[in-house]
Structure formats: C-alpha cells, structure tokens
Amino acid sequence: MNHKILLVRLRQIGDVAFTTPAVAAIRRRYPDAQITYLVEPAAASIVLQNPNLDEVLVVPRQSLWRDLRLGMRLRRRRFDLAVDFHGGPRASLLTWLSGAPVRVGYDVLGRSWMYTRVVDRPRELRRRHSVVNQWDLLTALGFEPPTPSANPIEIALDPAAAAAVERRLTAAGVAPGEAVVVVHVSASSPFRRWPAPAFVETVASLAVRGRRRVVVTSGPSDRGAAERIIEAARARLAAGCAERILSCGDFSLAELRALLERSAVYIGGDSGPLHIAASTRVPIVALFGPTPSERSIPWRDGALATAAIEVDGLPCRPCDQRVCTPGDFRCLTGIEPGRVIEAAEGFLEAAP
C-alpha cells in the first residue's frame, strides 16, 4: 500500500531543521509513500530540496477563512497519516482538517482532541535535545529512538546557491587555499544574542592570523548591526588585516548552507543558522545563553568538531526567555571572547 503522509511544522528555521531526522526515518519506513510537508515561507528552503519529500506546501500566514479552505483541500487529498510537529493553533487545526485517520500530535490544552494519538509534552524546560522532543511523535508510531550519527539533521545543498556563493567570494577577493571563517552575529531574540563588542573582539582577533577571511553574516533585520561590527573590527586592525574581514551582503538560507559547506569554522549563537551549520561538516563554535546546550547542540555525528560555549552554574538558567530576572543577560555577557577565539583557533590549526 502506498501511504499518503502529511507532516506539519510551521514557524522557525531551527524547529524545521530539527524535523529532518524524522523525515528521513519516515521515508526509510515507508519508501513508496507520498510524503507532503507543510511549512511557512520563512523556513521553507530548509526542506524544499529534501530528497525524502515528494512535495513541500509553503503556506503563508493568512486568515482563518483561507486556512479553512486550505484544510478542505488537504482533506480531499485523503492522507493516511498526519504528524503535527508544531502543536500551535494553526498547525493543529490544519492537521485536524486534513481528516487523516491517524493524526499524531502533542498533548496541548484545548487541542488534544484534534489528534487520534496524543503524545505528552511537559511544559517545564528539560535538558533534552529538541530533535528528541519532536521524535517523541514517531515513538508513538513505533519508531526506535534517534541518535545524532544515525539520524543527523539533513539540509540538501542547492547547486545554484553554491555557484552563487563561489562567485560572491571570488568577487570579494577570497583566493584558493584561504580559510573562510563565518561569524553569524544575529539571533531572533535578545536572549540569544551575544553582545556586539564581544563579536568585534572575536572577529578582529581571527582576522590577524593565517591565510583566512572572516565573513560576517546576519539575518536581514540585523544587517545594520553586522555592518557596525565589521567596521569596528576593521578599525582595530592594520589595513592588511582589516581587508580580511568581508562584508558580503545578505545570504539566503540556501546560500548560507552553501557558504558553510566550504567554510573552515562557523561561530554563532543558538539560532536557525547554527542548525543549518549542523547539516554540514564544518567545525562549529556554538554560543548558548538561557538554553542549555543539551537542548540545541548541533545534532550530527559526534566525530565532527563541535564546541559548546556556555556559562554554567547560573541559578536563573535555563529560563523561559520572557524576562531576564537579573536584568543583565549574564548567561550571554558572561561568555568571554577569549573562550570563543581559543576554540575557533584550535579548529583552524587542526584543519588540513
């Protein structure tokens, strides 16, 4: 029997990336199934090239009336199984409207009745990886627990994006044999954003040594912050070193994936680009604030170089990321640039 399977995961980049191990596992169990993935535009490119999916439906946020019409179209598709990895109001409604005879979702107050199989999701923050939290839905279907080596995050490389990145690096003066260090300086929340002066010190230090170029990236909303960090880091250095810090403009998610594929080190906080990096073999220096590294450490083979930098021993950590109780974001401001620089230099020295 050829199953028709609907997977639903809306909103954030990292959350969509965390579902890709489950997508691969579902494909292995149902090699002949027709698998459709429902996603919002912001994170669509994470799954658009995924070889385990037959179809990606990109659904912008819209009125309830339009969602009801979308739900009716899904119902006419006659899915056999629907898995709601999100659990939000919109995702649960669309899962229910699909009419799939088996609908798997989380035990969320007021919405559990929309599913035929309900999975417990404790409200408290746990030191448990987000991939495992989402995999709980597959456990309800009889799947074995995942491991990073057997079930890594997978984001396909877009050849067109890779070619565009190579052209951009060449235009910026990156020569063959030069190491590219990517420093991502933005995050969706102040609870995940390392202070700009710390980034400045890190970028300037990394640009001094060796045959390397430092590419500073950010989300579109933080473009101004990235440019200020670039200017401040360049101002610390002599001209010969300052030119090693590159301003290459915005990268799409597909282009960022391609950039990381050919980079020597990635440095960044706990945000979507960190988990795009996890889908490559690039050495990663990950900065964690209120979220413990156990929840968001790059989910990939343990043999790949990864350093988690965080401040342990804070009674306020982890927190719900609504209010900083001490008021000074000490989980982030307490991360010394020296620790980050040391980890990155270690990876660069160990590279071929």
What does this structure look like?
The protein is 36% helix and 15% strand. The protein has 13 helices and twelve strands. With 352 residues, it is α/β, with parallel strands linked by helices. α3 links the parallel β4 and β5. The radius of gyration is 21 Å and the shape is globular. It folds into two domains: 136 residues, Rossmann fold; 192 residues, Rossmann fold, CATH 3.40.50. The model has no long low-confidence stretch (mean pLDDT 93). The strands form two sheets. A six-stranded parallel beta sheet has the order 3-2-1-4-5-6, sandwiched between helices.
Summarize the structure.
The protein is α/β, with parallel strands linked by helices and 352 residues long. Helices cover 36% and strands 15% of the residues. The protein contains 13 helices and twelve strands.
